[in-house]
Design goal:
The protein has 176 residues and is of the alpha+beta class. The protein contains four helices and twelve strands, in the order αβββββαβαββββββα. The chain has helices at 3-13, 59-66, 79-86, 164-167, and strands spanning 18-19, 21-27, 30-36, 39-44, 47-54, 68-73, 100-103, 106-109, 114-126, 129-141, 149-151, 154-156.
């Protein structure tokens, strides 16, 4: 796509708010990871999700070789972790000073809101990205702060709407 069309495309897509996560894996040289917002639930039966990797992402070969990865859903107070994993630091150096543990053979970052561990099912070339489909083998979440959100090229957090009853006075009540 010519560059003049990429700018308006990015501006339009930037209006789609997404959660921010760090995709992690463990290779022979150690852990690796990258910040991603192109993560999507794909199937409930079986449990599948997809993650999009830029073709030049240094984390992609780690995931390809390991055959496993984790999605670490970041909390609103984890912007710096997102920045570190979005940087060009060497893969293992990204984990310096970032508390994490191994679970199911993949690194999970401490303090995250939710996580999914996946077995790599398939890699699909798609333009300048590769779509990874993962079969969820383990998952969890905590009740904590709001998630970190990416919107229009910047980090955001959620803001609660007025209670539904304020917008819909005739809304049905939950059964007792």
């Amino acid at each position: 796509m010519p560059a003049p069309r990429q700018r308006p495309y990015r501006a339009v897509i930037g209006h789609f708010a997404t959660g921010v996560s760090v995709i992690t894996g463990l290779g022979p040289a150690g852990p690796g990871g990258m910040t991603a917002n192109a993560v999507c639930s794909l199937s409930l039966e079986p449990l599948l999700l997809l993650v999009c990797f830029e073709n030049t992402a240094r984390t992609l070969p780690i995931i390809r070789q390991a055959g496993r990865f984790a999605v670490n859903v970041l909390a609103s107070d984890q912007r710096e972790i997102s920045r570190v994993f979005a940087s060009k630091l060497p893969e293992a150096a990204k984990f310096d000073g970032v508390a994490h543990e191994l679970r199911g053979g993949v690194p999970l970052i401490t303090g995250i809101l939710a996580w999914l561990v996946c077995d790599l099912r398939e890699l699909i070339p798609a333009g300048d990205h590769t779509i990874a489909i993962g079969a969820v083998t383990d998952l969890g979440h905590v009740d904590g702060p709001d998630p970190l959100v990416w919107y229009r090229g910047d980090y955001r957090t959620l803001a609660p709407l007025d209670p539904p009853a304020a917008h819909h006075p005739a809304a049905p009540k939950a059964p007792a």
